[in-house]
What does this fold into?
Amino acid sequence: MHTGARKRFGPLLFEGSKRMLGFGAWGIGGSGWGAPSDEAERLGAIALARERGVVWFDTAPTYGDGASERLLGRALGPHRDTVRIATKVGPRDDPRHSLDQSLERIGTDYVDLVQLHEIAEGWESRLETLHQLQHEGKASAIGVCNASHLELTRALTLAPITTYQGPYNLFDRDAEERLLPLCRERGLAFLAYRPLAAGLLSGGFTDPPQFPNGDHRARLYWFRGAEFERRREAIRNLSELARSAGISLPALALRWLLSRSGVTIVLAGARSAAHVADNLRALDAPLDEPTGNEIETAVEAVFRLPAATTAAAREAQGWGPRERFIVERLDGRTTPESIAAAWTDRGEQPMVAAQVKVFADQLRERGLA
Ligand SMILES: NC(=O)c1ccc[n+]([C@@H]2O[C@H](COP(=O)([O-])OP(=O)(O)OC[C@H]3O[C@@H](n4cnc5c(N)ncnc54)[C@H](OP(=O)(O)O)[C@@H]3O)[C@@H](O)[C@H]2O)c1
It folds into this structure.
């Protein structure tokens, strides 16, 4: 950390605040999500969120190639003092240039939070530049996205990070293993992204979807194959629970997330005012314990990993270290998240549960699990 660096800046963004539903502004950027919805509709989504009390808006230069930042600027400009705007700096971008461009697009002279979007070569010096930009008043706080717990621990020695942003939803729960505990321990705000599994938790996908070219969801493994089947089965049960609770499935998924220990802001993406209104129903009431338990049962039931066969253990001797590591731990009880976290603890290329699940599916197909 820079000598003399203040550890805390400004009125700290999250102090004393209750858990919040934020607005994820990727979709309103108009690309990467199939055909863009009408601009007026996207502006309406932002406006309604703000009117109904949402204060956190999360964007990035890459969302719609700057369009998300511009749209946020237009919708939130007159209310700048009462909202928080968070943007990001790409892993290969010059932080100063990137942030200056973001400020210009948003039409503001500071953002409330600037986050390093990914960890890639040279990330430490980029983080130090973000800290410098914070000193200059261009960002009230700095944060990191998509890091392993070891990288985040290192980041904390380099700059006064206040936030970590990572994927977290009912189905994608790597964060529970190391990152959420670390954030709690170090007093970092945890910003949960993709809370609706990029829309899968809308409940609207009865069959694996065919996304058009350029739609980033075509690359998400849970929209196809065995993972889609598992999630579809869980969604059937979860939809019943949502009906009993008198809310939509997305609202239930967000309510669950808001109840999770260590979560500070849930960044719900929405491209229409109707979705914003629906998502805000998550805040109508806290998650009650019986529903929470039933949610856990519905999710656990579909994600149980198989046990590896002795033939798999034999064959694995000739495989790479990551594959061997997984096979040795496939006992029918250990979760994919804990296997991935145990590998990541070693400090090599991190592993996520998705990789464990996909590999276990391959073993299953070959009769090895
Ligand atoms: N740091 C990072 O690397 C990173 C990565 C991903 C996301 N993020 C942040 O996290 C935010 C949220 O994630 P996300 O936007 O990727 O995904 P998400 O919030 O999991 O899903 C958003 C999508 O769900 C659908 N949806 C939302 N509310 C709905 C409702 N009430 N009923 C039915 N469908 C609903 C919409 O899809 P349709 O519009 O297609 O209907 C919407 O675009 C992003 O906007 C971004 O700010 C950060």
